[in-house]
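Extended Data, record LysE family translocator
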Amino acid sequence: MGAMSPGPSLAMVLRHTLGGGRLSGVITALTHALGVGFYALLTVWGLGTLIARNPLLFEAITWLGALYLAWLGVKALRAGRAGTLQAQGAAATPIQAARDGMLVALGNPKLILFFIALLSQFVSPGMDLVAKALIVATAMLIDGGWYVLVAMALSHSRVLPWLQRRAHWINRATGVVLLALALRVVLG
């Protein structure tokens, strides 16, 4: 359910799918899943304990995440009609899609809280490597699977042109959502 909830991750997959088509959306989805996997890995390695002992670390991650979300929001608002959601010309490269997918995952403090709250309950000090790997793989498969499905559905030949004609409104809505999420993170 965490992967399916609307937020910056969904906005980013939507944005890259509309701007670069199916491949760009899938790349964003898969690199996002790698970012999620990284947090899941950190959780099974003891991130929750580390953050509980060092609240300044969590605060730094939170502020960096908020700044990144705000930057993405401003970028989306400034895109306008001829912005990054157009099918040709200004579309993001696969490298940009990969970067944004990874960074939106790593810059989302809600993911850290989610994994600390959820996964840390299933991790014990004596847990073997296979069980830890299974936890990380499950988180990555659920996240990547959902966002690949979203990219595939949005890039359908009938859906994509309809969405691209409304790209400037999607840019604006995405920008507002990302800025609101950044503000919410800052305000706690």
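Summary. The first helix runs from residue 8 to 44.
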